[in-house]
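Quick question: what would this complex look like in 3D?
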Amino acid sequence: MPLIRLTGGRLCDPAAGFSGGVARDLYILNGRIATPRHVNERLNWETIAGRTLDCHDHVIMAGGIDLHTHIGGGKVTLARMLMPESSRHAFLPSTRAAGDAYLRMGYTVAVEPAMLACNARQAHAEMADTPHLDTAAYVLLGNDRLLLELIAEGAPQAKINDYVAFMVTATQAIGVKVVNAGGIDAFKFNARKLDVDTPHPRYGVTPGQIIRRLAEAVHAIGLTHPLHVHCSNLGVPGNIASTLATIRAADGFPIHLAHAQFHCYGGGDGKPFASAAAELVAALREHPNVTIDVGQVMFGQTITISGDTMHQYANFRFARPRKSALVDIECEAGCGAVPFRYRDRQFVHSLQWAIGLELFLMVDDPSRVFLTTDHPNGGPFTSYPHLIRLLSDRSFRQTALAEIEPQAAAASNLSGIDREYSLDEIAVMTRSAPARLLGLRDQGTLADNAVGDVAVYRENSDRQAMFATPRWVVRRGKVFEFDPAATGWVASPSGELHGERESAADDATPKRTHTVRPDWDRGSLSDFIIRHDRIASYSLANLSISDDEMASCLGSEVVVHPLRGARLT
Ligand SMILES: [Zn+2]
Ligand SMILES: [Zn+2]
């Protein structure tokens, strides 16, 4: 089917000049977006075989992009082993259910944010088994002992850059994430807390130094995606101090703060737990190099899965149901899975919910704050339509606010916030801005010649209903049609996933993995191999995954995106 005509729909993509829902025909020719004028120049499109979708009373957006969702890798597997009863629940879907559920919301790209280098093969294989989605991953650095050693001995920045570039390329990543810099390793030396300026008990380097070195390296080697940072002291009252210290530590280099809601708390030291959203928003105004995703908390059962063993150790006594798993991974990393239930009658949980919404609503620029629940940590990604309604419908939000724990409602300034997200702002936050922050130049947009992944939503003032089920999703030249009456892979209020097992998976297009290819000095590599083999549980030489292995063994075709710019000297 070479041509798909979408006629009469309202386009939402301000970044491509389609603001306010302009009515315009859109064509998809051989999987790429083409304007009618452009098509006419080349051929008489009316005579071409194809399909016409009547999009009157519909809103068209590019395919959604989720830049932080835990959908592949060891800790997801660990969570599934810990809670085998949950495979039909939205918070821990199978790979197949996850791919279907994303497609049924109009999403076509998802990024696994915490891929361990030593576990990259499994993470990619699992993502390749997730239908309908293009995927990508950030490789975890910052608790690996070779890097800690290099920083401790004051290695030149060029050497750090080489190491980071090698690790990104070897693991087929698109970016770098640091989780609780140095803290996961410090936990193995019995530290239970590591502040941004506290030296690591063995290596003597501080989290701030690790952030600074990695942020510079990511920038210097030309990655578009800034260093993706999970700050120190996740979930701890008063942790806004660590978050602000992390921003200062980055020293002006671009950083992205993941699940910022969990790092945005006042109180502690005898003072009550409180929102510090205003302080973080003020810091964002002052530091244009910083973006955030929220990690919104949604009420209900979920499971938290994190590379932050130090935090998960502190958290496991709150496990519901009462079981958890923590793993130290030799000299590279760690992780933990702790089931968790967020309750709307509980002060802290309710305030976490409110803090997330405050962040969304107080950051003026929708291209600097991203829609995430840190799936499944704050709640499942299937709750995005509900979350979109909370952001775009003030009275719906006020009704929800009246139902949370009263002291939390009183402690939040949410009732005084009138803002409602427009469709344009939703398109920016979930499409064009994440594409830009990831360096996916031809995705997340309806511009001419972009990848023709689009979602067509029925106009509906109930934004939850609207975004829960698009009428059509076009994915690489294939049209998927959804019936809103069929529940599909959507979460019921009890969190159960309903779906026809026939699913669209059999119809899925070939898998693609988005990557980048920074360069490094081959001379440094031989040194890294020798040193790594001395301290780690596997040989560094075994780490590299070739494009051929990705395609023939792991099941995904590699797409290499251009670097941000010339390499800095
Ligand atoms: Zn994280
Ligand atoms: Zn996360």
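Answer marked as accepted. Residues 64 and 430 are 6 Å apart (CA to CA).
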